[in-house]
Write a structure and sequence with these properties.
Largest sheet: 5 strands, mixed
Distance between the termini: 24 Å
CATH topology of the largest domain: Immunoglobulin-like
Structural class: alpha+beta
Helix content: 25-40%
Number of domains: 2
Mean pLDDT: 86
CATH architecture of the largest domain: Sandwich
Length: about 220
């Protein structure tokens, strides 16, 4: 999936750069401490500044910062390219303490919800290979829809709609959670997201059950 690929690429590169900078700073600090001990007792040079060295230092830091900002912005642009085909729409409502998924394009006004107790978890059904626009809101307090394996997360606010588009390029089922503390049963506010073939999704919109499931 695009989101997971972009997140993995950005995280790996930024972690490598951060690790490199940390090791360089640690090495310079160790060198300075050892050199200080080796020259203990020698007169101080009296030179308060080293302008050339400081210019190199500032220049390198600036170059790293400009690269990271520009490269991250470019990756973010690639991640959020407009879909080539019109996305299907799913309305997502978080409430204490579960989820409701409504399908406004369904001729039978299909919706799925649950209690989030035990195995009674609602399933967000989406078509594989097609863009899906999720419209998130909350009924009571702030919640956050989070799919850890796919690297998707967005807050759901009362009286407000947040929107993002995802495309799952193959069939499968993944566990989702609420990532915003919302009360005593926050820990149990899980759901499933299931990508099914487009023809099965169309049958689901018309009220037919999923193959091998009761969603």
């Amino acid at each position: 999936m695009t989101q997971r690929r972009v997140f993995g690429t950005v995280f790996a590169l930024e972690s490598a750069i951060a690790g490199f900078v940390f090791l360089v700073v640690l090495a310079l600090l160790g060198y300075a401490l050892l050199r200080r001990r080796a020259t203990r007792g020698t007169p101080v040079t009296g030179q308060p500044e080293r302008p050339v060295l400081e210019k190199y230092y500032v220049g390198v830091l600036t170059a790293f910062a400009v690269f990271l900002v520009a490269w991250t912005a470019w990756q973010n642009h690639n991640e959020h390219r407009p879909p080539r085909t019109a996305p299907v729409t799913v309305d997502v409502t978080g409430f204490q303490w579960c989820w409701k998924f409504s399908y406004p394009q369904s001729p039978v006004k299909r919706s799925v919800t649950g209690t989030c107790r035990g195995k009674d978890l609602p399933t967000l059904v989406v078509p594989a290979g097609r863009p899906v626009r999720l419209r998130l809101t909350a009924k009571d307090v702030i919640h956050s829809l989070w799919i850890p394996d796919l690297r998707y997360k967005m807050d759901a606010f009362p009286d407000h709609v947040n929107t993002f588009t995802l495309t799952l390029d193959h069939e499968g089922r993944w566990r989702g959670r609420c990532a915003e503390f919302c009360g005593e049963r926050h820990y149990a506010m899980d759901f499933w997201i299931k990508a099914v073939p487009p023809d099965e999704y169309d049958r689901f919109l018309h009220g037919q059950p999923l193959a091998g499931a009761a969603a």
